[in-house]
Design brief:
Blueprint lengths: L2 H14 L9 E10 L10 E4 L5 E3 L5 E8 L1 E8 L4 E10 L4 E8 L11 E2 L13 E4 L1 H6 L7 H5 L5 E2 L9 E2 L7 E5 L2 E2 L25 E7 L13 E7 L8 E7 L2 E9 L4 E9 L16 E12 L4 E15 L2 H7 L3 E19 L3 E20 L5 E23 L2 E20 L2 E2 L5 E2 L2 E21 L4 E12 L4 E13 L4 E12 L3 H4 L11 E15 L2 E17 L24 E17 L5 E15 L5 E3 L6 E9 L5 E10 L3 E2 L4 H7 L12 E2 L3 E13 L4 E9 L7 E7 L4 E6 L4 E9 L1
């Protein structure tokens, strides 16, 4: 029986089941409340369950506990004199479970002994840059069409373009996947994707981050502060929750990510653990998703938290992932592909972070080691000979230290250092071939080490000029040992609060990113290329339509300089933007490439205050570059417009229904030259019409139903989704079919039921 049929039966039967009402189904709410700026615990904070008289106050350590809470879903209201009142929705109390919260309160800019400022459901500030959006754990879990994957949740934002169901890459404001940065608990992660290829792109539908472990995520699409470097487009700053320090908890589940086990609990009075393991069953349903192969992955994540004392906290983090995609010659030929593929990735990040609290600030210092091994073998389906053989190891030791101090109630500084020492080994062979531009390329092989260091120092100064005006000045200096350059990157942002509901925001900054190491491996001289530079200018407004609904409008301009580009005379003939051409190999490049991305974004967020929530996003943008002939071209991800709407309805604590509809403009492409391709039975593009055509617009509907069961000692969550509910045939790409010797077209997922279940104990 298909899994989703089992889920349907559970839905029908479960809706008729009435658990004995005489059995008490109780849980609790506890947590820690701190100053959002200094991380100091706050004493005497009032925490109240909305629309009740039930609550608690934080103790001398900033901790609070509300025992004997009926199982259900609540909103919490957190009030403290001198701080903005915060409302926290979606606080889910399970039977025999403690819901632990880490709450950060933002100091109010309006000072007064008897003044309490309310910011409703949007208490986060934008002082650290424009375009920042936060998601709660429940918002990550229930997002329709996301499969609880971080990338799929984020691509509902107006700043993020998606490649469709078959990939979870983030394409932020016209940038490529390699332009994004990711941090978990102050530890940089070079990669958070399964099935990664050289150049940063992913060839699979799911990522490594287990959103069940996330306590908070802040995503910035531009104008981010000086503490982030070596990224041109975006930063995701993720916090994993600590393990429960009071009792053991466990979760077993099955969803799109596969089989899931999450466990956490105390090891001692001062030590807790959090562990997760996942194993996909994508290889079991490969036929259902028309993958043309058998993709599989597994990952394991572990966090250990030890409180040395009230001022010092150590966390140990390990994130491991492995993925494999392979098909045989017969399978690949039947699909019309030119090569059979075996692509295996193994990666791991392990690190420790020490947090020390000062009287009016903190220092976070992390030391980590990351590596990724990739083994890729492509075999020509027509000759059975090797066309590509790649073995690569990318390793990095990273030291990152950030200190924050509040000098006065209106002034603060943040400063630190970051060092990334890299050791990369590339061993690959590419057989002689006719490339997509119709140029004959000889055999190409390399066996090289690419080693270097990026060393940075950064600082920023924030000033609350008046009750309405705040501003931050910052800078980051980076020494790049690959080309021995020093890059200075100033940053600025400011906010003016016109009223209690309307705010104006501006940000500007210079951002650098070193040349991808896989490019340097192709020719040692490419190490001398300058780091690519992007200049951000952003302006926006945010308007609080109601306590639970906010409108945000941003306008941005991003100018790229010093991008790698082919020289005017070359033997490759590929006019693609180099940082988007992941499968291409180059013997020579120059560093005077130019590009830009410009657009306007609209976002409306409605939090779940009562029984309805939603998000509407729209974006109109252009992203272009100058090719080696001096002609301006559309970049690979110049979709020009996107629109997305998400809506959810929760009639009670047991049922929830949600939908999402997405629309994305067709991306530019170069049509295939059928005559030239037929001559050698290999794909050749009509370069005279480079990027002149566009694929049809992408649009799809996702529906989702959740059902909760609160039992005496355990809890159960069952959900059923339908992806591409009206079975739209969305184009993925055109390709030359070597079996039929004709132009063929691959598509995204057809109508696909996705079911899942989570059992809490």
């Amino acid at each position: 029986m298909k899994p989703y049929l089992v889920l349907l039966i559970l839905f029908v039967v479960g809706s008729q089941v009435v658990f004995a009402q005489s059995e008490e189904r109780k849980g609790s709410i506890s947590g820690l409340i701190v100053d959002a700026q200094t991380l100091e615990p706050l004493i005497g904070v009032n925490v109240l369950i909305e629309k009740t008289q039930t609550g608690a106050a934080s103790d001398l350590d900033g901790k609070f506990s509300i025992p004997d809470v009926d199982a259900g879903i609540y909103n919490l209201v957190v009030r403290y004199l001198g701080f903005e009142t915060k409302t926290i929705p979606d606080v889910i109390v399970g039977s025999n479970r403690d819901q632990y919260l880490e709450i950060k309160l933002v100091p109010s800019t309006i000072q007064g002994e008897e003044i309490t400022v309310s910011s409703g459901y949007f208490s986060e500030t934008r002082s650290d840059g424009i375009g920042r959006v936060s998601f709660s754990p429940e918002e990550l879990r229930r997002s329709p069409g996301a499969a609880q994957d971080l990338g799929r949740v984020l691509n509902a934002l107006p700043s993020v373009v998606s490649l469709g169901e078959t990939s979870q890459d983030l394409l932020v404001r016209g940038g490529s996947p390699s332009e994004n940065g990711n941090y978990i608990d102050n530890i940089p992660l070079p990669n958070i994707r399964h099935f990664r290829t050289q150049g940063g792109q992913s060839a699979g539908p799911l990522g490594i981050v287990n959103t069940e472990l996330v306590s908070d995520i802040e995503f910035s699409a531009g104008g981010f502060s000086s503490k982030y470097g070596n990224h041109l487009s975006s930063v995701s700053d993720i916090s994993y929750r600590d393990g429960n320090s009071e009792r053991f908890r466990g979760e077993l589940g099955v969803n799109m990510a596969g089989f899931v086990v999450n466990l956490d609990g105390p090891l001692s009075e001062k030590t807790s653990y959090l562990v997760s393991a996942r194993r996909s069953y994508l290889d079991l349903i490969a036929d259902a998703i028309d993958a043309g192969g058998a993709p599989s992955f597994a990952d394991g994540q572990f966090k250990l938290t030890h409180n040395l004392d009230k001022k010092n906290k150590l966390t140990f983090l390990n994130i491991y992932g492995t993925s494999l995609f392979e098909n045989d010659l017969e399978e690949a030929f039947d699909e019309g592909f030119p090569d059979a593929i075996s692509n295996e990735n193994t990666q791991n990040t392990t690190g420790v972070n020490w947090r020390h609290l000062w009287n009016s600030g903190y220092t976070n210092t992390s030391l980590s080691y990351s590596f990724r091994d990739q083994n890729q073998l492509l075999t020509d389906v027509l000759t059975s000979e090797t066309s590509t053989d790649l073995d690569a190891r990318e390793a990095m030791v990273a030291l990152r230290s950030i200190s924050y101090f509040r000098l006065t109630p209106s002034q603060s500084v943040e400063f630190g250092v970051e060092v990334q020492a890299e050791q990369n080994d590339f061993d690959y062979f590419i057989a002689a071939e006719r490339n997509q531009s119709g140029e004959n390329q000889p055999d190409f092989s390399r066996n090289d080490e690419v080693n270097g260091t990026l060393s940075s120092a950064f600082a920023s100064y924030s000033l609350q000029v008046t009750d309405q005006l705040s501003t931050t000045f910052g800078a980051r200096a980076t020494y790049n040992s690959y080309n021995e350059d020093v890059n200075l990157a100033p940053r600025f942002n400011s906010r003016y609060q016109l009223s209690d509901r309307l705010g104006l925001n501006v940000a500007a900054g210079i951002y650098y990113q070193a040349v991808p190491r896989y490019l340097i491996s192709q020719n040692a001289n490419l190490a001398d290329l300058k780091s690519t530079r992007a200049d951000h200018i952003i302006a926006g407004i945010d308007y609080l339509l109601s306590n639970d609904t906010k409108l945000t409008i941003d306008v941005y301009n991003k100018e790229y300089r010093n991008a790698p580009v082919l020289p005017e005379v070359n033997s490759i003939g590929d006019r693609s933007y180099v940082l988007d051409a992941f499968s291409q190999f180059y013997n020579t490049l120059e560093d005077d490439g130019r590009a830009y991305s410009r657009g306007v974004e609209v976002l409306i967020q409605k939090k779940l205050a009562v029984d309805f929530y939603g998000m509407v996003s729209a974006s109109f943008f252009r992203t272009r570059y100058e090719d080696y002939t001096g002609t301006w071209q559309d970049r690979e991800y110049d979709n020009q417009y996107l629109f997305s709407v998400i809506g959810g309805y929760r009639p009670n604590d047991l049922w929830e229904v949600s939908v999402r509809w997405s629309l994305l403009g067709g991306r530019a492409y170069t049509p295939i030259d059928a005559t030239e391709s037929a001559n050698g039975n290999s794909e050749v593009l009509d370069v005279a019409r480079f990027n002149e055509e566009r694929y049809p617009a992408y649009h799809s509907l996702y529906t989702r139903v959740d059902r909760r069961f609160f039992m005496k000692k355990t809890n159960l969550v069952v959900f059923l989704e339908v992806w591409n509910a009206y079975n739209q045939s969305n184009v993925e790409t055109d390709f030359w079919n070597v079996r039929t010797q004709q132009i063929d077209r691959s598509t995204q997922f057809n109508l696909l039921p996705v079911s899942g279940v989570k059992f809490e104990f």
